[in-house]
Amino acid sequence: MRIAQSALPLCLASVVFVSAGAHQPSRPPDPTAFVPSSGVEVPLRLVRGRPLVDVRINGGGPYTFLFDTGAAGDARADSGLVEKLKLTVIGESRGGAPGGQIVTMPIVQFDTIEIGAARWAPVAAPSRDYNQRESSGEPHIDGILGLGLFADSLVTLDFPRGVLRIAPGALPDADGRDIIAFENPRRVVEITFDVAGTTVTGDLDTGGPDGVTLPGGMMDRVPLAGPAKVVAQGATVSGSMDISEGALRGTVTVGRYSILNPTIQFVPPFPHANLGIALLSQFALTFDQKNKRVRLAHEGNAPIVLKPRAERRRRVELSRHRQWTSGSGWTALPLDAPLSSVLRSTECYGSSCPASASVR
């Protein structure tokens, strides 16, 4: 992605782009970002645990987008917005959808995305219906913003203040306390943290509704106050699974912050841990993707707490699906985030695409 500053911006799948009038599929250009040197600030709303931002698409709007740090890539478009704006289809993507089925999704192009005075153009966005749970009270969204759109800027999700900030710059060196180094091998931010003396690697995922989610295999490796209880079932292409919940007898430590005796969730096939919005909404998060650093800021003396799902009045049905390779086949994995169902995409173009696209 290229950036210009004015004087005053679950699942893995195979992706193929097409180009009208061309013999071979061609990769769309990376978005060019225009971010004012003074930065921009816009409201960040938290509705039913969903961080929402108003954006302008192709000069129109505003439209409501979910800001999902667990979404690889730049953006996603709801099928209703695609139809409304008659967006151009430039390719397709294969991935998971609610219910565990594998679907093919069109990839459309936003000519421009604007957030305040910041602007990106053009932006490729996989599309499907992201509002299948709207009838049960979930907020309507027109699309999804991923961290990839902000690769050349500092982006801050300040949940306590309800502000999204985008600005040029860089974070200081990581100190392991306030500023943590991260990796992103799957194009998703991964950090290491401690769970009652066990070092764990997990995603920072504002699209995930829980606080701390661990692979099911860790259920017998961390101390619990009592046996974990099944609180949900998830469906994937490989079948159903039980999602369990238990109170940790100990501390989760993320940087310099500690959460004593939190309630955590366990998902049997997850290969990675996940830190979701129930935890992250208690912080201001600043991402510096160029230097692979993230800052967590929590003001005041209020304790950081993670309550059981029932107390947070979260629904227990699972409909966000991610996929990882497993042997020679695909395995779709769920995460309870009904709005997103966001793709982790591996892209291929023309003759570079194998018969069965590999994933990383």
Full CATH superfamily name of the largest domain: Acid Proteases
User: In percent, how much strand structure appears in the residues?
Assistant: over 45%
Number of domains: 2
Termini gap = 21 Å
Number of strands: 31
Give the structural class: mainly beta
CATH topology of the largest domain: Cathepsin D, subunit A, domain 1
Please summarize the sheet with the most strands.
Answer: 14 strands, mixed
Please count the helical segments: 3
- What is the CATH first-level class name of the largest domain? Mainly Beta
Kindly state the percentage of residues in helix.
Answer: under 10%
Kindly state the mean pLDDT as a whole number?
80
Outline, from the CA principal axes? globular
CATH architecture of the largest domain: Beta Barrel
**pLDDT < 50 stretches:** 1-16, 18-25, 314-360
Instruction: Supply Rg.
Output: 20 Å
What does it look like?
4% of the residues lie in helices and 46% in strands. The chain folds into two domains: 2-169 and 340-352, Acid Proteases (Cathepsin D, subunit A, domain 1), CATH 2.40.70.10; 179-314, Acid Proteases (Cathepsin D, subunit A, domain 1, Beta Barrel), CATH 2.40.70.10. With 360 residues, it is mainly beta. It has three helices and 31 strands. The chain has helices spanning 79-85, 277-280, 309-312; strands at 2-4, 11-17, 32-34, 40-43, 45-47, 50-57, 60-67, 75-78, 89-96, 102-110, 113-115, 118-121, 123-128, 143-145, 154-158, 163-167, 179-181, 190-195, 198-204, 212-215, 229-236, 239-247, 251-254, 257-260, 263-267, 273-275, 284-288, 293-297, 320-326, 329-335, 343-348.
